[in-house]
Amino acid sequence: MAMARVSPSSSARLLPYPLLQSFLRPFSSSVSHLCSSRRRSSPVAAAFSQASLSPHTVSEGQVMEAPSTSSRRPWKHTCLYYTQGKCTMMNDAMHLEKFSHNLMEDLPVSASAADKVKLQKLDYFLILDLEGKVEILEFPVIMIDAQSMEFVDSFHRFVRPTIMSEQRTTEYIAGKYGKFGVDRVWHDTAIPFKEVLQQFEEWIGNHNLWKKEHGGSLNSAAFVTCGNWDLKTKVPDQCKVSKIKLPAYFMEWINLKDIYLNFYSRRATGMMTMMRELQMPIVGSHHLGIDDSKNIARVLQRMLADGAVMQITAKRQSATGDVKFLFEDRIR
């Protein structure tokens, strides 16, 4: 089967969950459908929220409906086969009508907002938001240009556990991704973590962000996470389970919570708190990794437009060493 290597997407006006489920049924039906404190005001806020919203509370898995505007296209859920380079329905008009194949639509940047960005020490940010408690189940990365704030590319893979039994994995996936209606996609596409890292290294290598022979560190780029758990705890634990050495490019990262605290002088416990305080509507499904990564990227864009400078906040001295936190005032 020919595989298309592509950059994904989703968008802006969100649908109620029952309607979203009806859109996602082609994924679930059969493999034959396999796409095989203080509030800081900002003059550029409208470039990212496109509306002034009251704070909302969104429960796990819920899709929030953002207010519509005449400039918005109807929102469509991202084709999760496409994000992994496996969509075989690009010539199917009905499929294209139902699912988005352009992640950039969720991450627009206006010229006026880009003009506000201060000089950054890095060229690219790699927004990472892992999913999975026992083992990693989803590995999504959104690449953003540090100066223009524009979406560059994305990497997205579902991850197949190596020590969980088949029955437990099936039950876990049904509980985790079944509520989004994309559990069939996971079963069709998930690969072991070791293979995910091999493909990821090829991806960052193609973008000239990494060369194994140069020590394995990222070149003028850094991971951005919402908290320290992803790279302090989960990736090292998964590497032990998968019996591989922790790659050098995971040795340092930017915890957006710490940058947010020091820039806005207020604490945010997570992505949803940041978005509520910044009056930004959520795009997609909370706790679907690729959608959470897009929303964290949108918060990052907003902070850059407000004048924030992104800096490394945590660094590990070695693959087995302790993590050194570089900000005195940080989220613990």
TrEMBL record:
The keyword Aminoacyl-tRNA synthetase does not apply. SUPFAM superfamilies: Ribonuclease H-like. Keywords: Exonuclease, Hydrolase, Nuclease. SMART domains: EXOIII. GO terms for molecular function: 3'-5'-RNA exonuclease activity; nucleic acid binding. Residues 124-309 form the Exonuclease domain. It comes from the Eukaryota. InterPro entries: 3-5_Exoribonuclease, ERI-1_3'hExo-like, Ribonucl_H, RNaseH-like_sf, RNaseH_sf. CDD domains: ERI-1_3'hExo_like. Signal peptide: none annotated. This is Exonuclease domain-containing protein.
